[in-house]
Amino acid sequence: MRRVWQGWVLGACLLMQVAFATSLPAMVVVTEDARPLHYLWQGQLQGEAPPFIHLLMQDAGLRYSQQVYPWARAYMMASSLPNVLIYSMARTPERETQFQWVGKLLTVQYAMYALQTRQDIRARTVDELRHYRLGVTANDVRAHWLREQGIPEATPDSRTGMDVAHNGLSNMRKLMQGRVDMVPTSAVGLRSFCLTENVDCNRFRRVMVLPFSVDLYVAASLKTAPPVMQALRHSYERLVRNGSYQRLMSPYTDRASLALRP
């Protein structure tokens, strides 16, 4: 009789979980190709972050579809549409009230990189960066930060300023082609680019470390339903407590230098 009762209780709990999950709206999860944390390889999303996101959504009991877009489009969707989850998003004071924050993925530190052959490039201060053409990504936290330092966007006629691209890969290719002088990235991200593009990393050199680091988060759109946010935050805390977060993200949580998006 006891076993029968336990079976009834277990069955009731499962039915309640199913009912709860189906009562919540389906989520759209968006990200970009940003090596090495999350990137497309032969049509499949790879890296340590996607499995963690899958586990997060599964633990929260949420139905979802996942899409990879250029960062500007993913950012637009998360800033305007309901029930959209985005990663990896830099949490900045300007964005604090524009999104709902689920949990931190890691901290990154950025530096400026140039080609080894461009020994003429010298910058010891942020102010000296204004003398060069810098490759940045649209709606990227690094572009926002450089703009706050007084560095304008480049015009078709100017040789200096921020040259805006749709993704980080385009920036690195522009750097190799000599179309920009420097790109804000990191040692880990640079190595990932070199492996992906089959490029010798000795072709690049670090010009200066930027006085700028950010925390990358999983975030949701403001119009995401409150029950969804509650489920996501509870699940994130549970995955941290049970060690799942550390197990999946450990290759990056101990490193302070990653060339990843917000």
What is the H level of CATH, i.e. the homologous superfamily of the largest domain? Answer: Periplasmic binding protein-like II
> How many distinct helices?
8
Low-pLDDT stretches are 4-21, 254-262
Fraction in helix: 25-40%
- CA(first)-CA(last) distance: 56 Å
What characteristic shape results from the CA principal axes?
globular
β-strand percent reads 25-35%
Structural class: alpha/beta
How many E strands?
10
> From the coordinates shown, what is the CATH architecture of the largest domain?
3-Layer(aba) Sandwich
- What is the fold-level CATH name, i.e. the topology of the largest domain? D-Maltodextrin-Binding Protein, domain 2
Question: Biggest β-sheet, characterized?
Answer: 6 strands, mixed
Core attributes:
single chain; 262 residues; alpha/beta; D-Maltodextrin-Binding Protein, domain 2; six-stranded mixed beta sheet; 8 helices; globular
Describe this structure in words.
By secondary structure, this protein is an alpha/beta fold. Helix content is 38%, strand content 27%. The strands form three sheets. Strands 4-1-5-10-6-9 form a six-stranded mixed β-sheet, sandwiched between helices. The chain has a two-stranded antiparallel sheet with strand order 2-3. Strand 7, helix 4 and strand 8 form a beta-alpha-beta unit. The chain is globular, with a radius of gyration of 21 Å. 37% of the residues are buried.
